[in-house]
Write a structure and sequence with these properties.
mainly alpha
């Protein structure tokens, strides 16, 4: 129901302002949104698939080797997709803003960038389209895990679950803090005043995600991403403390974006 309302609002906004270069009437927006859908599909498939094939080890027997495998898979696929989408952005004329415009793969990141739209040009309509595509892509990725990996459903499809004897308050704090750190770090490395680092930004962001996943996996399940948590929860029917994986990342990434906006000057962006 909410998705239908969201799509209707987006459509109405498009009809009203289709002549503006940054609205959804621009074919570039649909190409970028399609990139979000495919990238999120791959990200969720690899991340959740790695957890499933590891035997849901993360919450029962979190050995260092097994945790490292999941952490590396998450960070490497994130970095690879970021590199791929960076090239895609260059192809459509947004080389300097690739970190802002495409490659979010995370509704919390998109929401946070929309809060500082003067810097990122992620307006509400574009954000709504991206988030819809990210959730759709995540669901498709979870369905692929369910259909292609044996016994995936018996292992909750890699859903984000709290570790044994971990309270919801500890998991919430972990998700909020690391979501803040990840987005704040990513915003800094993609800062348009540091063009010399743009080529390394995806690798640095992926490395950051790997380290944080290694730390948080046995505690909160290492989500930092509402779409990544929602999709396996929906397909597997695993809703335990699911609200944490929406509220905490949204709060953490929003704080990061707001603080970043105060620390850096607003620059006119070119779409």
């Amino acid at each position: 129901m909410c998705v239908c309302v969201c799509v209707c609002c987006v459509a109405c906004e498009t009809m009203k302002r289709a002549d503006e270069p940054h609205m959804l009437g621009n074919s570039f927006d649909w190409r970028r949104a399609s990139a979000e859908l495919f990238a999120t599909t791959i990200f969720v498939f690899v991340t959740c698939g790695t957890i499933v094939t590891g035997g849901s080890l993360t919450y029962k027997e979190p050995t260092a080797g097994r945790l490292a495998g999941v952490a590396l898979a998450s960070g490497l696929i994130y970095a690879a997709l970021q590199y791929a989408l960076l090239g895609f952005a260059r192809d459509i004329g947004t080389a300097r803003e690739a970190g802002w415009i495409v490659g979010h793969m995370n509704p919390a990141v998109t929401f946070a960038l929309a809060l500082i739209a003067p810097k990122t040009r992620i307006n509400p309509s574009r954000a709504a389209l991206y988030i819809t595509m990210q959730i759709g892509g995540a669901i498709f990725g979870a369905l692929l895990v369910s259909g292609l990996i044996p016994d995936a459903r018996s292992r909750d499809l890699g859903a984000t679950l709290l570790g044994e004897d971990v309270s919801w308050s500890k998991a919430f704090t972990m998700e909020l803090l690391l979501s803040f750190m990840f987005v704040f770090f990513s915003l800094l490395v993609y800062n348009r005043s540091r063009h010399d680092q743009i080529a390394f930004a995806p690798l640095l962001s992926g490395l950051c995600l790997s380290v944080m996943t290694f730390v948080a996996l046995p505690i909160s399940g290492a989500s930092f991403n509402p779409a990544r948590s929602f999709a396996p929860a929906l397909v597997a029917g695993q809703w335990d403390t699911h609200w944490i994986f929406w509220v905490a990342p949204l709060m953490g990434t929003s704080f990061a974006a707001i603080i970043y906006s105060f620390l850096t000057p607003i620059r006119k962006s070119v779409d």
